[in-house]
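Re: D-ribose structure - here you go.
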Amino acid sequence: MRIAVGSDHAGLGLKESLARHLAELGHEVEDLGTHGLDSVDYPDFGAAVGRAVAAGDAALGVCCCGTGIGIAIAANKIRGVRAAVVHDVSSARLAREHNDANVVCFGARLIGPITALDALDAFLSSHFAGGRHQRRIDKIEALEDADALEDLHP
Ligand code: RB5
């Protein structure tokens, strides 16, 4: 699977270890930066990963920043992206099963490296459950459409 990865300076070390792990599993990793420890802005990298996923250049995205929060907020601004901050195996699995997340985000300053690797494995091996969850994803997608906002909040 082709997977886009990105981080700011705070997430760099974790991003590199997750990218190495993905490559060892046989995935094709597209590293969209950052590549050094100089201070950079997480929205640039969240957007880059989000755009790669939304465009279909990557099937999934992996993002890291200090908390995972900022880079997830940025990635979620890209139409079609469902980025989830995960903290453990359970949140990673449920992000896929219930939310059909296509970008997984980690807080490098908050999560241990082994927990992050386990959570990434859980994210990759889980699948969207569909059913009632599909209706909710449809509503999220409707929120991306300005006209639909009228229908949701008349
Ligand atoms: C960078 O200092 C930090 O603010 C960033 O990595 C992230 O935690 C933002 O959400």
